[in-house]
């Protein structure tokens, strides 16, 4: 029996799911194959993910393959009640209500775990940690994990020798990093900033702090919109990479004087602090795309704002400094693409969820033989997802000849670094 807000939202949800489906060609092709082959027949899957139209398409693909799927929300604020209603109308089990309190949330996770699933799909490791805490992990065949934070928890369990089943680190697959982080967040972080401010990026100086996979996406997209992009880094290799890409690379204190829009995306804390705020231009916009709201030093900003803080637009707070300069903080320093934008586009989630489907299929076949540890996504699955995406784009590539493969193999045999 499901727990959702309102079953009458099913038609609206079905429309939203269909819109997402049209932009998820890889998952669609997998759904068709799985429906024909039914490799997941009888498999019980529990998923604790964002309950959205994109996730609904993942659930549909797994069910097409023969799995029974129960879904609850990894974050009560991202639940789309209409998508949940549409899934229930199709026969899936869903326990998610937008805005549910932490008691209801915990109850839903416990309900899924109590039904003794064989495979868990997690975004933050809640199913897996609750299953372990309840002593019910022994019956799990395997799990998958979608976030860095979740993997930290799972690796913690493994380090204590308590991890009872194999877990596949889906979020570390290369296709996931490319699509979710570089292209998904690269675009959606800028989208969030533009929705909140309606700024014209062309001709403006945008400072990107952190040139990792995600920062690279943001820097590229900002340049594409005509901005002058400055990159700040602490890693010499990444900084060099930014230089070679033609970005201006500066220490953050110098960039602070030039920037009109700042985006932190380092995974670290206090990247923009009091000494940076002191140097910023009047009207500067501050946004964070890193996981936690600690990259911009919010205490320092509040302390500097002796003239007060006011909301000038939804999600835009103006901090008035003693000398009359105004600094504009977006979404209270929380992840700007989720707080002010629509999160990852369906086309980005297409690849993430295609990985999940192929990993679940792999686990259904080989999970029993895997050690209770964190495992990478098999390279063949990463390549298959990329191949399917290329096919959906109508892009053909070459295949190495047998002679070429043998040639490369000779070098592999002597440890030559062939990628
Ligand atoms: N908003 C989203 O949807 C989303 C998506 C993916 C990742 N993230 C988050 O973005 C952050 C970065 O993720 P990533 O995958 O790009 O990580 P990454 O490790 O690939 O890159 C982070 C980069 O920041 C640099 N850095 C660290 N401290 C710095 C500092 N003080 N100043 C300048 N640069 C610094 C590092 O050298 C590194 O190159 C993480 O918090 C991650 O959770 C958010």
Characterize the structure shown.
The chain has 17 helices and 15 strands. α1 (10-22) crosses α3 (53-64) and α5 packs across α6 (126-133). The chain is of the alpha/beta class and 419 residues long. Strands 9-8-7-10-11-14-13-12 form an 8-stranded mixed sheet, with helices on both faces. Bound molecules: nicotinamide-adenine-dinucleotide. Nicotinamide-adenine-dinucleotide binds at residues 148, 181, 185, 209-215, 232-235, 238, 265-268, 271, 289-291, 335, 337. Residues 148, 181, 185, 209-215, 232-235, 238, 265-268, 271, 289-291, 335, 337 line the site of nicotinamide-adenine-dinucleotide.
Task: Provide the fold topology.
Layout: H1 10-22, H2 25-37, E1 44-49, H3 53-64, E2 68-73, H4 81-89, E3 93-95, H5 102-114, E4 119-122, H6 126-133, E5 142-145, H7 148-159, E6 167-169, H8 174-197, E7 205-209, H9 213-224, E8 228-232, H10 236-244, E9 248-249, H11 252-258, E10 261-264, H12 274-277, E11 285-288, H13 298-304, E12 308-313, E13 316-320, E14 326-330, H14 336-339, H15 346-366, E15 374-376, H16 379-393, H17 402-413
Parallel strand pairs: 1-2, 1-4, 2-3, 4-5, 5-6, 6-15, 7-8, 7-10, 8-9, 10-11, 11-14
Antiparallel strand pairs: 12-13, 13-14
The site of nicotinamide-adenine-dinucleotide has 25 residues, from helix 8 and helix 9.
Keywords for this structure?
single chain, 419 residues, alpha/beta, 8-stranded mixed sheet, 7-stranded parallel sheet, binds nicotinamide-adenine-dinucleotide
Spatial ordering of strands, largest sheet: 9-8-7-10-11-14-13-12
Q: What class would the helix/strand composition place it in?
A: alpha/beta
The gyration radius over C-alpha positions equals 23 Å
Average pLDDT: 95
Low-confidence stretches: none
β content, as a range?
A: 15-25%
Overall strand count: 15
- Gross morphology: globular
The count of helical stretches stands at 17
